[in-house]
Amino acid sequence: MNCPEKKHILLITTGGTIASMPGGQGLEPRRSDVLERELNQLRTYYHISIQDLMCLDSSNIQPEEWRVIARHIYDNRLKYDGIVITHGTDTMAYTASVLSFMLQGIAVPVVLTGAQLPMEHPLTDALENLRTALAMAAAGTAGVYVAFDRRVILGCRAVKTRTTGFDAFESVNWPLAAAVGG
Q1: In whole angstroms, how far apart are CA 154 and each of 4, 109, 140, 146?
Q2: Which of 13, 14, 17, 124 is the catalytic position?
Q3: Is 17 a catalytic site residue?
Q4: Residues 6+ away with beta carbon under 8 Å from 56
């Protein structure tokens, strides 16, 4: 039996809870070393390259950062089969919507994901969200998406509706792009 070739996925980190660690005043975003340890098991399925772009709480991501993120995606779009961006949940839906317009016609999947609990928390949702995002990025369906709670939402339709609970995002007036089921 032939195994399909592994997809090349770029993982861009921007900060957020998914890669945070406890600090002096609560959770503090860290670089990719927090994610790196957990990605080793997923490298069985994908070739994953990690690039730390920024290390911000998403409440600090504004139009200036959107330009940096969009430029970085655009500059790397031909080198990878898909791109995953780890991002804080507070402004993830805004970033996904803006990127949907800034990257119109992009030929690869661009998938934003994050977590309600940090990667190193024993009950984290980060691993499931990251697995869903990587699977969507490898699927080859071009566009901008949000992957969260085993669901994939079109980037310009995602909205954060809950600040607690793993089902934080909903799709507004549009069906899900994909869902992970048993």
Answers
A1: 27, 11, 14, 6
A2: 17
A3: yes
A4: 14, 15, 16, 29, 65, 88
One-letter-per-residue 3-state SS of the chain = CCCCCCEEEEEEEEECHHHEEEECCEEEECCCHHHHHHHHHHCCCEEEEEEEEEEECHHHCCHHHHHHHHHHHHHHCCCCCEEEEECCCCCHHHHHHHHHHHCCCCCCEEEEECCCCCCCCCCCCHHHHHHHHHHHHHHCCCEEEEEECCEEEEHHHEEECCCCCCCCEEECCCCCCEECCC
pLDDT average, residue stretch 146-159: 94
pLDDT tens digits, one per residue of 90-134: 999 999 999 999 999 999 999 999 999 988 889 999 999 999 999
Look-up: residue for tokens 């406890």?
Answer: 22
Single-letter code of the amino acid located at 84:
V
Task: Tally the residues of the chain.
Answer: 182
Q: Which residues contact 175 (CB under 8 A, 6 or more apart)?
A: none
